[in-house]
Amino acid sequence: MRQLTEKVHSKNVHVSSLYSEKEAEDFLEKNNLNVVQRKFTNKKTDLQKIKINFPWVMKISSKKIMHKARVNGVKTNINSIKEAEKCFDEISKIENFEEVIIQKMIFGKEIIIGIKNTPEFKHVLMFGKGGSNIEKEKDVSFRVIPIDNKEIESMIDDTKFSKELNKKEIKNIIETINKIQKLIKKYPKIEELDINPLIVNDKEYIVADARLVIK
Questions:
Q1: Which of 15, 47, 87, 102 could make an S-S bridge to 75, C-beta 3.0–4.6 Å?
Q2: CA–CA distance, 194 with 68 (Å, rounded to integer)
Q3: How many domains does the chain have?
Q4: Domain of residue 79, CATH code
Q5: Residue 97 counted as domain residue
Q6: 94 occurs within a structural domain
Q7: Using one digit for the tens of pLDDT, what is the confidence trace for 113-140?
Q8: DSSP string spanning 79-129?
Q9: Residues 202, 147: one domain?
Q10: Domain that holds residue 45
Q11: pLDDT tens sequence across 7-33
């Protein structure tokens, strides 16, 4: 894991460090967040060695690609090595390809949870309906952290998506947000954190994709 603060050689100048998805997910997992079972590889021959039960999700991994779905870099419901090899061939031809991520496919509701360090309010929390259509749907709400459980529930209620959530799922979301608040307190130089999606169902709540910037 790279150092959390990177300095350039000029005096008193700091640069932000953009973590790869692999680095971001490892960071979150080490800090007590539930992250999906996953493997990374840039070799098609490695697919046969992966010990993750089907179905799989395969995604492109590259620091130069922000939106995987827009470049057709996400393949879901992969049920065999043969299917996986075909998906690998397609993804590896995408410009700026570095490697693929193989994940256990988790079924549930897709949530987005984000953190942004702003000049006016310091760390602001975003919650809403996740997935690839977030910019179109814009079903999100915001709060300045720290906030307590009552305010988290209010934040969830501010979204239309809240009507699709049951009590267990809401409880899991609250627990995740509280873990993220502890993370921000521990690492106040976090500039941005995007978890999209956080998969939530009655049994689990699990990070399936993450982006992280630390100053």
A1: 87
A2: 14
A3: 2
A4: 3.30.1490.20
A5: yes
A6: yes
A7: 999 999 999 999 999 999 877 777 789 9
A8: -SHHHHHHHHHHHHTSTT--EEEEEE---SEEEEEEEEEETTTEEEEEEEE
A9: yes
A10: 38-104
A11: 323 333 345 788 888 899 999 999 999
